[in-house]
Amino acid sequence: MRGFIFDLDGVIVDTAKYHYLAWKKLANDLGIDFTEEENEQLKGVSRVKSLEKILAWGNKTLSDKDFKAQMAKKNKDYLSHIAKMDESEILPDVPRILNLLKKEKQVISLGSASKNARTILERVNLKEQFDAIVDGNDVSKAKPDPEVFLIAAKQLNMKPEHCIVFEDSVAGVEAANIADMVSIGIGSKDVLGHADYVFRDFTEISDEFIKSLIEN
């Protein structure tokens, strides 16, 4: 038996576009330019750290009160987007992989920095597929710290070296590697070349490959 741990944003669903829209609105309201390239640097990063980065890029400072207010504002804007999500937003072949793992009697966990992970899984009707859910409400350290994956392994009653992580971010792959787990990058090989394996998306991952991970 193996423990399979999935990141959420960019792996199971593409909520990165909604994060981008919400962060861009916040940044622009503060008089800060915000590009899609900068948004890439926020993948897998906590809300606090993300706002700190945006403020640094814009050479802006906020009081603690205003900082918290801006975080709440961003989250409200983001939630307005995900409230409209449904099963059509699940990325290609994710259900096939999850169903295969269930058929093979493997254990599955979410390992995400998102504090809205449970809400999103409910919206896309995937919550019941997970034996454990570890999200931003359960951790104190952001990726590349491996805390989120180590907690997930513990909840699955699996040793870290018996876990496989699917990640789309540089920080997430690094966290999986630090945790001594098999890292599978979902995205560009140019960006995620430090992963053990890299696939553009789940359509490139065969059933045979998943079975080989279980057996070896």
Characterise this structure.
- By secondary structure, this protein is an alpha/beta fold.
- It folds into two domains: 3-13 and 87-215, 3-Layer(aba) Sandwich (Rossmann fold); 16-82, Putative phosphatase, domain 2 (DNA polymerase, domain 1, Orthogonal Bundle).
- Helices cover 45% and strands 12% of the residues.
- It is built from ten helices and six strands; from the N terminus they run βαααααβαβαβαβαβα.
- Helix 9 (189-192) links the parallel strand 5 and strand 6.
- The mean pLDDT is 95.
Using brief descriptors, characterize the structure shown.
216 residues; alpha/beta; Rossmann fold; DNA polymerase, domain 1; 6-stranded parallel beta sheet; 6 strands; 12% strand
Short description:
With about 220 residues, the chain is an alpha/beta fold.
User: What is the helix tally?
Assistant: 10
Poorly predicted ranges (pLDDT <50, ≥5 residues)? none
**What's the CATH architecture of the largest domain?**
3-Layer(aba) Sandwich
Q: Give the distance, in angstroms, between the N- and C-terminal Cα atoms.
A: 10 Å
Based on secondary structure, the structural category is: alpha/beta
Reading off the top of the CATH hierarchy, the class of the largest domain is best stated as: Alpha Beta
Helix-residue proportion:
40-55%
* Shape by Cα distribution: globular
Task: Please trace the helix and strand order, writing H or E for each element.
Answer: EHHHHHEHEHEHEHEH
What is the number of beta strands? 6
Indicate the mean pLDDT: 95
Instruction: Predict the CATH topology of the largest domain.
Output: Rossmann fold
**Main beta sheet, described?**
6 strands, parallel
> CATH superfamily of the largest domain, please?
HAD superfamily/HAD-like
Global Rg: 17 Å
- How many individual domains? 2
Proportion in β-strands: 5-15%
Write out the strand line-up for the largest beta sheet, numbering strands in chain order: 3-2-1-4-5-6
